[in-house]
Amino acid sequence: MSLFGVLDRLSEVPSFDKQLEAARTAVNKVLRPKAFKDVLHGTWLGHPLHPILAMVPVGTWLSAGLLDLVPATRPAATAMIGAGVAGSVPAALAGAADWSEQDDAVRRLGGLHAVSNVAALGLYVGSLVARGKGNGTLGRVLSYSGLLVASGSAAVGGHMSYAQSSGANHAVVEARQLTTDWIDLGPLDDLPEGRPTRRTGEGQGTPVALVVVRRGLTVDAFIDACAHVGGPLSDGTVENVRGSDCLVCPWHGSAFSLDNGEPRRGPTASAQEKLEVKFEAGRVFGRLPNRHTPK
Ligand code: FES
């Protein structure tokens, strides 16, 4: 089994689920109000914030490792370590916010990621203390140990993002499958007012679920799988969120503007894939803009 196969196995072990659930409850209590949590998700940015903030400890600690190789640049290494310790706090808060809205398998690996990061942080703080007391050798041993642990933790985080798709836009995957031809979404009169309705489009071998919302003579159509982790938006609701009529996901409450698919409330940081719509002889047709056409 490959190293990363071990991580997949670990993500299936439920032994610490009770502790992880307690941690999730604590995270949700601490990261209030919801608007603060959305800032940490990156909903306002249209991109997850955690990987951006994580660049600070990763970059500074790696730089410190290089600066420590040359005696003349060791004071700069200490400064880098201090910056990384400070930068790890917002990165951890953003990671915790994202982690709390994921499924069990991702949360299990996230627990390992968090414990490793805390261990790395402890080693770096110990390194700063040792350096402050003039024990440079111990300081360097501790910081190189921290770099090793942080690198392992980064690999776990990467596995969560890439293999478990924890930070991916799940609607894009579906959108890539969908035909770029016009799709018949049925008669306008069959669509209920202000209620998400499921429709199906032709995909590459399998049908792709769509969700359609009618507001008077306006119809908005989207990929049904929520950008966050694929929840069925057609089982959701239409609500006014922060001044916009939004399609709200039934799984974690992400809200997407009906006008343009932009997120108005997290945990999603991505916009929902929206179809263009036209009317012909009382019927509604939708089509995905061409950017996902298979080559
Ligand atoms: S799947 Fe999480 S908000 Fe939709």
Structure write-up:
This protein has 295 residues and is an alpha+beta fold. Helix content is 47%, strand content 18%. The chain is built from 8 helices and 10 strands. It has a 6-stranded antiparallel beta sheet with strand order 1-10-9-4-3-2. A 4-stranded antiparallel beta sheet has the order 5-6-7-8, with no helix packed on it. Strand 2 and strand 3 form a beta hairpin. The model has no long low-confidence stretch (mean pLDDT 95). The structure holds FE2/S2 (inorganic) cluster.
The ligands found in this model are: FE2/S2 (inorganic) cluster
What global shape is seen? elongated
Could you list the spans in which at least 5 consecutive residues all have pLDDT below 50? Answer: none
The topology string of helices and strands comes to: HHHHHHHHEEEEEEEEEE
- Please tally the helical runs, counting DSSP H or I stretches of 4 or more residues: 8
Quaternary form: single chain
Order of strands in the sheet with the most strands? 1-10-9-4-3-2
Distance between the termini: 34 Å
Radius of gyration: 23 Å
Instruction: Find the count of extended strands (DSSP E, 2+ residues).
Output: 10
The secondary structure category is: alpha+beta
What is the beta-strand fraction? 15-25%
What kind of sheet is the major sheet? 6 strands, antiparallel
Question: Helical proportion?
Answer: 40-55%
Q: Number of domains in the coordinates?
A: 2
Average pLDDT reading = 95
Pfam family, one: DUF2231
Cofactor: [2Fe-2S] cluster
Keywords: 2Fe-2S, Iron, Iron-sulfur, Metal-binding
InterPro entries: DUF2231_TM, Rieske_2Fe-2S, Rieske_2Fe-2S_sf
